[in-house]
């Protein structure tokens, strides 16, 4: 990767017509360390959030020693980047052949389930491989309710009474029994975690079997931008939230359990920007060379506002004007011919922005590269390395779309 101090420097040097990703390894390492330092258990980074080799390698160097994986491709990526790291197979519904690969080739011994038939499926593979069940921990994934920006319990999780039976069954078979929950993604309130911990305590009490570990999942919120029409308080620093969840765990008498967490978004969001180019300006609409089918699908759900700043093209003649540029909400239209390829939240940019300028869109490290498609023939894949991530670049034209600092502490 070519190196530049900031994404702006890369844009001005390369003058790219295609999107360019600016990766800040120092920011990634710092955000990983912030989580590792705050959390007293095992931090298993959720590979699906961003499984690029350079991300996994940077995390391993920063001290991440475990990975939450869900598929053979993720087993291989984690193994390649961090051969010594533990892998936890936390997908509740799996193919038998993948379970076999996990146990046999990757030595995985921690697996999630939310149904007795899945436990039976795993038992058949374990017996076939002549592995002792007591060497394998089956984590029962609990269903939870909360206010995550993305609510995931609609799909996975056993209701508390069902989880009790599952734990007892797992224990009877001879597996080690664990408890897990995952409250969603971009969870900005402590309540969701509080309810999940309370539910875990109830289930553990009822089940009356030995619990080997408690996995509190991911969902910790990353800092994003601000829509000036809908100001919202920034999420709490991750360290605060993690410590409060741990206090909850202690309060429910679960403090002696070994803990696991599976953060994704909060670790990787800030380390990546994408520099896109404005192809056309139509009034308050900007047509750019990226969109929801490439790097920006996570923002299309309307749940998050991405911070953005203009990088004016110095080669573009600019009309002399008396008034200072005014921050204006622009609709952002994506590169494909698809009419849904429009971002659901505006970017607040100086009204002087025009065709040929670049826009640096920050905090796209989570669920961006992993969700790119080849739709319509657009597939951004150019990378540079930068020393300073989005908010450490110079303020540009007063485009104050970033929340005040504090979200990623
Ligand atoms: C996606 C996922 C995560 C990571 O979630 P974030 O919101 O990115 O922290 C963790 N655990 C499981 C089981 C997941 O599916």
From TrEMBL:
GO terms of molecular function: ornithine decarboxylase activity
UniProt record, GO biological process: putrescine biosynthetic process from arginine, via ornithine
Recorded coiled-coil stretches: none
Active site feature: 337 (proton donor)
Domain (Orn/DAP/Arg decarboxylase 2 C-terminal): residue spans on this chain: 270-363
UniProt domain Orn/DAP/Arg decarboxylase 2 N-terminal: residue ranges: 33-269
Entry annotated with the keyword Lyase: yes
GO cellular component, one term: cytoplasm
Name listed for the protein in its UniProt record: Ornithine decarboxylase
Gene source species: Methylopila jiangsuensis
């Amino acid at each position: 990767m070519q190196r530049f101090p900031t994404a702006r420097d890369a844009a001005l040097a390369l003058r790219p017509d295609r999107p360019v990703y600016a990766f800040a390894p120092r920011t990634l390492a710092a955000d990983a360390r912030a989580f590792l330092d705050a959390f007293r258990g095992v931090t298993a980074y959720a590979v699906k959030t961003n499984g690029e080799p350079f991300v996994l390698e940077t995390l391993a160097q920063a001290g991440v020693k475990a990975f939450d994986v869900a598929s053979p491709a993720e087993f291989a990526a984690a193994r390649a980047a961090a051969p010594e790291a533990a892998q936890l197979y936390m997908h509740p519904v799996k193919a038998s052949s993948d379970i076999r690969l996990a146990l046999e080739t990757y030595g995985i011994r921690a697996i999630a389930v939310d149904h007795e038939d899945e436990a039976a499926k795993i038992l058949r593979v374990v017996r076939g491989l002549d592995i002792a069940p007591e060497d394998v921990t089956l984590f029962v994934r609990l269903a939870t309710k909360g206010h995550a920006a993305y609510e995931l319990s609609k799909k996975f999780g056993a209701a508390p009474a069902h989880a009790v039976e599952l734990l007892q069954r797992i224990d009877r078979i001879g597996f080690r029994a664990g408890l897990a929950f995952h409250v969603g993604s971009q969870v900005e309130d402590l309540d969701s975690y509080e309810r999940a911990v309370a539910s875990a305590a109830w289930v553990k009490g009822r089940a009356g079997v030995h619990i080997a570990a408690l996995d509190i999942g991911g969902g910790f919120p990353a800092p994003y931008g601000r829509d000036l029409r809908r100001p919202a308080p920034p999420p709490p620093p991750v360290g605060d939230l993690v410590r409060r969840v741990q206090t909850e765990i202690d309060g429910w008498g679960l403090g002696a359990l070994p803990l696991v967490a599976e953060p994704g978004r909060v670790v990787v969001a800030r380390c990546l920007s994408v520099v896109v180019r404005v192809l056309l300006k139509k009034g308050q609409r900007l047509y750019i060379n990226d969109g929801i089918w490439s790097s920006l699908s996570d923002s299309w759900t309307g749940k998050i506002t991405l911070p953005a700043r203009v990088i004016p093209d110095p080669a573009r003649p600019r009309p002399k004007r008396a008034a200072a540029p005014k921050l204006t909400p622009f609709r952002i239209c994506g590169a494909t011919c698809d009419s849904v390829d429009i971002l659901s939240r505006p970017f607040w940019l100086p009204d002087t922005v025009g065709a040929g300028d670049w826009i640096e869109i920050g905090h796209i490290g989570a669920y961006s590269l992993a969700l790119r498609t080849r739709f319509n023939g657009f597939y951004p894949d150019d990378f540079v390395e930068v020393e300073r991530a989005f908010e450490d670049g110079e303020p540009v034209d007063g485009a104050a779309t970033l929340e005040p600092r504090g979200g990623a502490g």
